[in-house]
Amino acid sequence: MSAAGNEAGRAGGEGAVRAWAEGDELPSLEVPLTRTLIVAGAIASRDYQDVHHDAELARAKGSPDIFMNILTTNGLVGRYITDHFGPRAVLRKVAIRLGAPNYPGDTMVLTGKVVSVEENTARVAVVGANGIGRHVTGTVTVGLTEEGAAS
């Protein structure tokens, strides 16, 4: 594999050739936490809990503002993985745990590290941190095409 082919795969572009290995770190992804993202994610996932769209009611329930729901977080984690493993990667399992809430006006930074590669499957440890701590931690099992598998 050429160095150019290896670098092209990091971006997850189509036709990219990339052999992933245990210990590989994925480039980070910064996600601006806008009020629109939080509300749109809740609506798109049919989560109509007021704490995800109504700041006044969220404050009445003890939260300083609205906050992101788990389904939006799950979607962002999935996007983070497929951005790096390419459009033919298949999310086989996403096991995440929420921690510090994602509030509007903050930024979540997603990072990941390949913890194992077996045949055409990789496991990636993922962390999403914001200004108050770790919002999400977990592991994602991703099915790789032959081009993305370890050689």
General description of the model:
By secondary structure, this protein is an alpha+beta fold. Helices cover 26% and strands 33% of the residues. Strands 1-3-4-5-2 form a five-stranded antiparallel β-sheet, with helices on one face. The N terminus is likely disordered.
The portion of residues forming beta strands comes to 25-35%
The count of DSSP E runs of length 2 or more, i.e. the number of strands, is 5
Query: What's the order of the H and E elements?
Result: HEHHHEEEE
Oligomeric assembly: single chain
Class by SSE composition? alpha+beta
* Major sheet strand order: 1-3-4-5-2
Q: Helix tally?
A: 4
Mean pLDDT: 87
Radius of gyration: 17 Å
The major pleated sheet works out as: 5 strands, antiparallel
Give a short synopsis of this structure.
The chain is of the alpha+beta class and 151 residues long.
Provide the descriptors you would attach to this structure in a database record.
33% strand, alpha+beta, elongated, disordered N terminus, five-stranded antiparallel sheet, 151 residues
SSE blueprint and pairings:
Layout: H1 3-10, E1 25-32, H2 35-44, H3 55-60, H4 70-85, E2 90-98, E3 107-118, E4 121-130, E5 133-143
Antiparallel strand pairs: 1-3, 2-5, 3-4, 4-5
